[in-house]
Design a protein that fits this description.
Low-confidence stretches: none
Structural class: mainly alpha
CATH class of the largest domain: Mainly Alpha
Number of domains: 2
Mean pLDDT: 91
CATH topology of the largest domain: Multidrug-efflux Transporter Regulator, Chain: A, Domain 2
Strand content: under 5%
CATH architecture of the largest domain: Orthogonal Bundle
Amino acid sequence: MGYTIGQLAQQAGVGVETVRYYQSLGLLDVPNKPPGGQRRYEDAHLRQLRLIRRAQTCGLSLADIGILVGRDSSCQTICGVIARRLATIEAKLSEFQAMKAELHGLLNQCSNAAPDSYCPALDHLANKTPSK
């Protein structure tokens, strides 16, 4: 029998407009509408919708997701998209680790200062050349 668009959206934890948006982008197939009836979505539509949502939580863009759900995409192509996203995340993690270390250093500067005195962390920030 299948799902109505509202039931499909509810099962996937999204709104009906989100389903329609994904359809307009070509990310989610639109089932045929029988004469005088309602479109019915199958489990394959629900799986596809969940895939889209999960891919977004992994930080993949809608353009990347379009490649993932594309009919012509090979496993090599899909893995390439995933590998690029992973490389971006790893680069960001390195940046965050450097920021974390810098902030810890600034806090150490503060720990040696008197409570109501000038904060030495400001001097440290002002005198250090930013890294790129």
